[in-house]
Amino acid sequence: MLKEFDTAQQAPSPVARSVPQEQQKPSLGRVLSYVVMIAIVVTILFPIVPIVLWSFSGRWFYPDLIPEQLSLRAWQYVASPASKAGEAALKGGSIALVATFLSLAVGIPAGRALGLHQFRGKRLVQFLILAPVIVPGLAVVMGIHVAFIRLGLSGKVSGVILAHLIGTTPYVVMVMSSVFSNYNPEFEEQARTLGASPIRTFIHVTFPTIFPGVLVAAMFAFIISWGQYIVTLLISGGRVITVPLLLVNFANSNDHPVTAALSLLFLAPSIIIIIITSRYLTGESAALGGFGA
Asked: Measuring CA to CA, which residue among 166, 156, 172 is closest to residue 236?
């Protein structure tokens, strides 16, 4: 009798067995979300497929769907010193990193002021910050070019970096303003009450809280600076060579395989950065919420 009672206790009930089975069944909403996500990824990546094929093509003529002959000529040329692609990528990446750091140095305190405080003329300040993005870029660059010639910054890397800040800083300020509009400064006050210095408070309290927003802002700044063509060309006078300048130059030469290889080199940093920071763009750790209060 005791054996039968123990066996009955150990045997799972039909209800208990049915709960995990119900939980394992994917809901319709989750299936649809996966389908939409896959469709978005395919839509974004599909245009890159012809570029990849072109970069490895030796002979590819209409109406063939795939190259008639494969070749590594384009990649061998891009990897060689003669193409200056490595030098252009290094210089463009260095300019983008410096522009990103300076944009964060300006954008974090500016975003904090716009996100946490109310003051007279706040809307005007927001408009002025967004003005370089609203006004056509060519008009802005032409005016900056004249000023930089007088200041002796034209044709120099420092002038290119300062010009890139005009395009990157508004996005950093917008992102950080949205972050600080959802930020609670009482945590800082508690840390200061417990004896933490302003620096320790920023390192251990403020920065970990706003880190997702800082990462997203840095992503925007780097991608925008990395992709600048008109600004770099006009301010540097063609003396500072970056990947976009090389890409446009080869696009006009009708060398499709080399152009495709340079296009992939141009796209690579953006794709890598977006993959790394994608978890901070959605979900509970999403950094974007609005442009201040």
From this structure: 156
pTM (2 d.p.): 0.79
User: For the segment 221-253, what is each residue's pLDDT rounded down to a tens digit?
Assistant: 999 999 999 999 989 888 899 999 999 988 888
Give me the number of domains the chain comprises.
1
Q: How many residues would you count in the chain?
A: 293
Spatial neighbors of 86 by CB under 8 A, at least 6 apart, are 79
- 148: domain CATH number is 1.10.3720.10
DSSP state of 12: P
Say how far apart CA 11 and CA 8 lie, in whole Å.
Answer: 5
Q: Is residue 290 part of a domain?
A: no
The string of pLDDT tens digits covering residues 5-36 is 455 445 555 444 544 554 556 677 788 888 88
Handedness of CA 180, 284, 98, 83 (dihedral sign): negative
Reduced to 3 states (helix: H, G, I; strand: E, B; else coil), residue 10 is helix
